[in-house]
Design goal:
alpha/beta; 8-stranded mixed sheet; 5-stranded mixed sheet; 16 strands; globular; binds zinc ion
Length: 343
């Protein structure tokens, strides 16, 4: 699974396909923009406006007609089922936000996956490998203040994507090419059982052209991110099942990494505004409501649920309506249940 089809993702994907990888899942929610074309080997002017995952798939298939590519136009943070991630040989991240990496790390720890991380700026780049099997954790390496800041946002925040969008870093062609190639090599090594970067970070300096391999490993016993979701049981539920069907099977359900918001209350005059959506959707929802458009989320008290049980007042909603994606793994009082895929 390759998460992120920007300039680094383009380089990595091109290399993986040239090296003979024939089964890929691409995850990205962005569309190709004109500005991207000077930094992306897979996109052409005809692709402007298309989803990056679709444009990348089509171009990669021209390179190898046998290539099997599944595309997921979604945000890896909340919208990709953990059951799908659990099926992957490897997860590779070509993303540009700390928050996204933090969440990929969490998903991969829960599902027991190893993941390769690549990051670039205009002047430098780095490659790292994380996972319980290689005793390296992204959160443990963050440490201290950065980790606290990320965990503070975890409970239920809808402003993260906007903040991240504002913080895009310009990237360089050379770091993308070098880091993409090193990542591809790492992927091949890991698939072949010989992780050459284990315990190290590769870093590249585009000014001096020097590459370094430095010690880089942290895996603290008390880190809460190392929670492994196992054993995973299969069940007859899908994301289209109702809450009442789910509660019947699994008694109590914890919403992973987000909450369900049924209404907001205006702090000024106590007016109630119905939301009925996942916490991450609240801002978008407010934008669609003329009375709330342009208002700040801090103007409102948010009524939310993190746990769903027999007392949940909306038993006829579907799991999807709570924000649970297709093929996800439910964390319940009876253990971990993997949802069936609808198709
Ligand atoms: Zn950790």
């Amino acid at each position: 699974m390759v998460v992120g089809c920007g300039s680094l993702g383009n380089e990595l994907l091109k290399d993986l396909v040239l090296l003979g990888v024939e089964h890929l899942v691409l995850v990205d929610f962005d569309r190709v923009e004109m500005d991207n074309l000077s930094r992306t080997v897979l996109f052409t002017p005809d692709d402007v406006g298309r989803y990056k995952v679709d444009a990348a798939r089509d171009r990669l298939r021209q390179m190898n007609a046998r290539l099997e590519v599944e595309t997921i136009c979604a945000d890896i943070i909340h919208d990709v089922g953990l059951g799908l991630i659990a099926e992957m040989d490897l997860v590779v991240a070509c993303v540009d936000s700390r928050w996204t990496r933090f969440m990929i790390n969490r998903h991969c720890m829960r599902t027991g996956r190893v993941w390769v991380d690549g990051g670039i700026t205009q002047a430098e780049g780095s490659v790292r490998v994380f996972g319980a099997q290689v005793a390296n954790c992204y959160a443990c390496n963050l440490g201290g203040k950065k980790l606290t800041e990320l965990q503070r946002r975890l409970s239920c925040s809808q402003t993260i994507r906007r903040m991240e969008e504002m913080g895009h870093v310009p990237t360089g062609l050379i770091p993308a090419a070098v880091v993409g190639a090193v990542m591809a090599r790492q992927v091949m090594d890991l698939l072949n059982g010989s992780p050459s970067l284990q315990g190290h970070m590769y870093s590249f300096d585009a000014d001096t052209l020097l590459g370094h391999k430095v010690l880089f490993q942290a895996f603290d016993d008390d880190c809460v991110e190392h929670d492994v979701w196992t054993p995973i049981r299969h069940c007859t539920l899908t994301s289209e099942s109702t809450i009442s069907e789910a509660i019947e099977q699994c008694n109590t359900l914890w919403l992973r990494d987000d909450c369900f918001v049924d209404y907001l209350i205006d702090r000024k005059d106590d007016t109630r505004h119905q939301m009925m959506c996942a916490g991450r959707m609240v801002v978008e929802r407010m934008d669609m409501m003329p009375a709330l458009r342009g208002r700040l989320t801090s103007d409102f008290y948010q009524h939310e649920y993190h746990v769903v049980d027999a007392d949940f007042p909306y038993p006829m909603l579907t799991l999807q309506q709570l924000g649970i994606p297709s093929g996800d793994i439910l964390q319940t009082a009876q253990g971990f249940y993997q949802l069936r895929n609808e198709d």
